[in-house]
UniProtKB/TrEMBL annotation:
It comes from the Bacteria. This is Binding-protein-dependent transport systems inner membrane component. Belongs to the binding-protein-dependent transport system permease family. It comes from Alloscardovia macacae. SUPFAM superfamilies: MetI-like. InterPro entries: BP-dep_ABC_trans_perm, MetI-like, MetI-like_sf. PANTHER family: DIACETYLCHITOBIOSE UPTAKE SYSTEM PERMEASE PROTEIN NGCG, MALTOSE TRANSPORT SYSTEM PERMEASE-RELATED.
Length: 306
């Protein structure tokens, strides 16, 4: 009787364990299927655009799924030179690089101080940064534009030309300013999770606060820094509204240039050059993502008090 009593719960546990394993396997299979479908929905259009970028003008009148008869590199040459996409590409590279440097130079020390020190007004500053997360820059770009126009009108009283409108450095400053709340908020939370043992060990060795911040906390925060850099890079590189509003001359960013290319090539029915321009715009994003992802994985494996 006692043996049977002990065997029944054990049998139930075995059945429950097998049921849990089957449920876990089924859930994992469904998850893999969903991820595969999502990956295919992204990969197939990307591959199709790359293939279409090598087609000649006459090949688009047939089936859109046919492979190109040859590799027409001239589409890329025409998009990069004749459509001035090379000029726009260089402008975007300069603006994106300057914006990322500015936001990191400002956000890193600010996030470190907010995470590791206590001072009067700290809570108010944190609330202001958190409030900035809810402000969509697209809603305030018109007031920013009017402020810059008024500043240029004031400068024209003393100089022959303005400075704030159609200036890549001002555009970089606007990009950096609008992305500061997110960057500071993300880095601050990560800095706060780092144990004080690292800081105390460095102070015992005679390291200053600046040395601790630069040589200890910044390398340890590379996962958060890489994530913020990736997010900011995508925002800067893919922006259209801010660039279209503040850059009123011929020196536009690559997204504005791509739209002009789309309008021109649609009218000329030269879709090969259009898709070549899309590929040119996509390449820096893919390269930067691959680099940051590698750094993110390397940094996530670092640790230990030395």
């Amino acid at each position: 009787m006692n043996t049977l009593t002990h065997k029944v719960p054990r049998a139930q546990r075995i059945v429950n364990k097998k049921g849990t394993e089957h449920a876990w396997t089924a859930g994992r299979t469904i998850g893999q299927i969903v991820l595969t479908l999502v990956a295919l929905s992204i990969a197939i259009p990307t591959i199709w655009i790359i293939i279409a970028s090598f087609k000649d003008k006459g090949e688009f009148y047939g089936s859109p799924w046919t492979l190109p008869e040859g590799v027409h590199w001239q589409n890329y040459v025409d998009a990069f030179t004749d459509a001035h996409l090379g000029l726009y590409f260089g402008t975007s590279v300069i603006v994106t690089t300057l914006s990322m440097i500015l936001v990191l130079v400002i956000a890193l020390p600010c996030a470190y101080v907010l995470a590791r020190f206590s001072f009067p007004g700290k809570r108010l500053l944190q609330l202001a940064i958190q409030a900035g997360l809810f402000i969509n820059v697209n809603y305030i770009i018109v007031p920013i534009f009017l402020m810059l126009v008024d500043a240029d009108k004031w400068l024209l009283q003393f100089f022959d030309a303005g400075f704030f409108i159609d200036n890549i450095f001002v555009l970089s400053l606007v990009y950096a300013a609008t992305s500061l709340p997110f960057t500071v908020f993300l880095l601050q939370d990560y800095f706060a999770t780092i144990p004080k043992a690292y800081e105390e060990a460095a102070m015992i060795d005679g390291a200053s606060q600046t040395t601790i911040m630069v040589r200890i906390f910044f390398p340890m925060a590379m996962p958060a820094i890489s994530m913020s850099m990736l997010f900011n890079f995508l925002c800067y590189w893919n922006d259209y509204i801010i660039s279209m509003t503040l850059m009123t001359g011929d020196n536009r960013t690559v997204q504005v240039g791509l739209l002009n290319l789309m309008q021109t090539q649609k009218a000329a029915t030269n879709y090969g050059r259009l898709y070549a321009g899309m590929v040119i715009v996509m390449i820096p994003v893919l390269i930067f993502y691959a680099i940051v992802q590698k750094k993110l994985l390397e940094a996530s494996n670092m640790g230990g008090v030395k």
